[in-house]
Amino acid sequence: TNVTLAAYTDASCTSSASGTLNASTNPLSTAGTGTATFTGVNYTKAETFYLRASNGSITNDCSSAISTTAATADASNSTITGNGPIVSDGNATSTITITLKDQFANPITGTTPTFSATDSGTDNGYGGCSASNGSGVSTCTLLSSTAEVKTLSILTPVADTGGSVTFSALAATFSSTPTSPYDYGSTSLDLSETFTISNDGGALSGIITVTFTPANGVYWQQGTDNCDGNELVPSSSCDIDITFKGTIGGPTTQNATIHITGSDGGDITLTLEGSIP
After folding, report:
1. Which residues are CB-contacts of 236 (< 8 A; sequence separation ≥ 6)?
2. Comparing C-alpha atoms, which of 190, 184, 188, 182 is closest to residue 251?
3. What is the 8-class DSSP label of residue 36?
4. Per-residue pLDDT tens digits for 156-174
5. CB environment 233-247: b (16+ within 10 A), e (fewer)
6. pTM
C-alpha cells in the first residue's frame, strides 16, 4: 500500500499548505508492514503547519502543530538598495533598505545587518541598521561628502553586492522673493519692485549674468542691479529693481522676463506682467 504525506495549514487538515513538502520518497509503500517511515522530510515555508498521511481510502488524523522558522539568509534572495540622488554635503542621508530572505524566500526577522558602500573619499558615514521586521526589511542611513555613484553591499549576515546610490556634487540653486510669475496688477502709476535672488545651494554661483527682456521696452525700466557681474556664496542674496511704467498709458498688458544664471551653477527665470487700464 502506498501512503502519501501532505501538509496543511489547519488542525483538521482540510486546507492545503502553500509551502513545498519534501521527502526522500513520497508516496511511500508500507511493504506489507502497515507502517511507512518517511525520511528526509523538510518544508519550505516558515509557518505553523500540520501533516497527514493517507492512501486514498484510509486517512489518519492530523499531526500536532509543527512550526518551522526561516533558515539562514541567502544572497540570491536578499537585496540592498538606496534612495537618491543625495547631495554630497556630509549631512544629507540616503535611506538604505536591506531585505533578508532565506533560500526559500522566507523573511529573516530580528536580525541586524551591516553594510558597506564605495568610499573613494574615505568620508562615508554609516547609520546603524534596524533589526529586520516581519518582512525581513531593515533600514539604515548613509551620508558622504564625496560626489560619486556608490555601490552598496551587505556585509552580514550574508555577503551580497546589490544596488547603488548617487551622491551628487554640491551646486548653487537660485530662488526669488517675490516668486515668479509676478503681476504688477492694473495701474496707471509707475510701480517698482525689488526681486531678491538667493543662493539656497551649497556651492558658489560663479559670476552672475542677468538678462532683462521686456516685450516692449517702453513699459519697463531696469533699475539698480547688484546681481549682474557679482557672485553669490551659499545663503547670500542680491537685488534687482524692475519698474513697470503705468504712466505711459494704455489700455495694454505687457510682459517681461528676467533670466539670472551663474557661471558655476544656479539658474532661474522670472516672468513679469503689468496692465494699464
Report:
1. 198, 199
2. 188
3. -
4. 999 999 999 999 988 899 9
5. ebeebbebebbbbbe
6. 0.67
- Angstrom distances, CA of residue 104 to CA of 108, 144, 154, 159, 215: 11, 36, 19, 17, 68
At which residue does the C-alpha cell 516692449 appear? 216
In terms of phi and psi (left: phi > 0; alpha: psi -120 to 50; beta: otherwise), the region of 163 is beta
**Is the separation of the CB atoms in 136 and 100 below 8 Å?**
yes
Longest dimension (CA), the chain: 113
- Using left for φ > 0, alpha for ψ between -120 and 50, and beta otherwise, residue 32 falls in left
**CA angle 260–262–266, rounded 5-degree value:** 80
To which residue does cell 499531526 refer? Answer: 63
The 10s digit of each residue's pLDDT in 230-273 is 999 999 999 999 999 999 998 999 999 999 999 988 999 999 99
